[in-house]
Design a protein that fits this description.
This protein is an alpha+beta fold. The chain contains 6 helices and 12 strands. The protein has a domain of 157 residues: Sandwich (Immunoglobulin-like).
Length: 299
């Protein structure tokens, strides 16, 4: 009786907790790149569920078929050699599953690294997304606008994010629009995204970067092209200009609210010259050595 009531209590608790859960953001895609990732996650879940069900079914079968029986004390079980067919099945099926998932994931990687499908004939909106401890800065070079800790984007237009960091390595991630990509101090990474429908989304740094990491988030608002242009005009008419002194203060470690400026940091802090995996460490060292040599010659 006690076991039955305990079981009922456990089931009731699980159902109560699950009814209060919101849908997983990665399974609620709002863009083509996120849709590809969500499809891969769901496919992987179904494959894993199939494997678990088959393994549990075999386990139950083995427990029933080969359970202990009342044999005499001098009973000797028959000697059984290995079965080649069973061994091939046990090895071959996992290999096929891994090969299938690998093939699907490689195809998906090519899709999400390329501009979003369905937007090939449209000019992308370029946004420089840079991080500092513990803030996100968004520069719109075409619109000459900069925002802090919030991002406005138009729907129905491809987005091309240029990612780098003013401090430690961070990871730019908007779960409902696509996967994460790293932002580093000495190189620029490009991330292609798009929003299919208007809405508000959550973005964050998904790479641990110190004590302020937990609040290193930003808000994303997707809107129509017309609403986006209205916002641009409003910012240009009301926001203060971004100066080098102001931006230097913004880079100091700490948390801030949402800020808006006209002009961008790109005019006085240009992005790193290296892109897509190139690093400047060696170049900077070589340049420093060359400058030191030239200086010694002049002396």
């Amino acid at each position: 009786m006690k076991m039955r009531w305990a079981f009922i209590l456990i089931v009731f608790t699980i159902l109560t907790v699950l009814t209060g859960c919101e849908p997983l953001m990665v399974l609620d895609p709002k863009g083509p790149q996120a849709q590809v990732l969500a499809n891969d996650i769901v496919l992987s879940m179904w494959v894993m569920l199939f494997v678990v069900i088959v393994v549990l079914a075999i386990l139950v079968f083995m427990l029933i078929k080969f359970r202990a029986s009342k044999q005499s004390e001098d009973y000797e079980p028959p000697h059984i050699e290995g079965n080649a067919i069973v061994e091939w099945i046990c090895v071959g099926i996992p290999v096929l599953i891994v090969a299938f998932l690998s093939f699907v994931n490689v195809q998906s990687n090519y899709k999400i690294e390329a501009p979003p499908q369905g937007y090939e004939d449209k000019e992308p909106l370029v946004i420089y997304a840079t991080s500092s401890n513990w803030k996100w800065h968004f520069s719109y070079p075409e619109q000459e606008i900069e925002t802090v800790n919030y991002l406005y984007i138009p729907t129905g237009r491809p987005l091309e994010f240029k990612l780098y960091s003013h401090g430690p390595i961070t990871s730019f991630w908007i779960p409902q629009l696509g996967g994460q990509k790293y932002a580093m101090a000495d190189m620029v990474n490009t991330l292609h995204l798009a929003a299919d429908s208007p809405g508000e989304f959550m973005g964050r740094n998904s790479n641990f970067s110190g004590e302020g990491f937990a609040e290193n988030t930003f808000n994303v608002a997707a809107m129509s092209e017309a609403e986006f242009e209205d916002w641009v005009e409003e910012v240009k008419a009301t926001a203060k200009p971004l100066t080098e002194d102001t931006f230097t203060k913004l880079l100091e470690p700490g948390h801030l609210g949402q800020l808006t400026y006209t002009g961008t940091q790109l005019s006085f802090f240009p992005p790193p010259s290296a892109e897509h995996g190139g690093h400047n460490h060696g170049d900077s060292v070589i340049h420093s050595e060359d400058e030191a040599t030239d200086h010694s010659h002049h002396e």
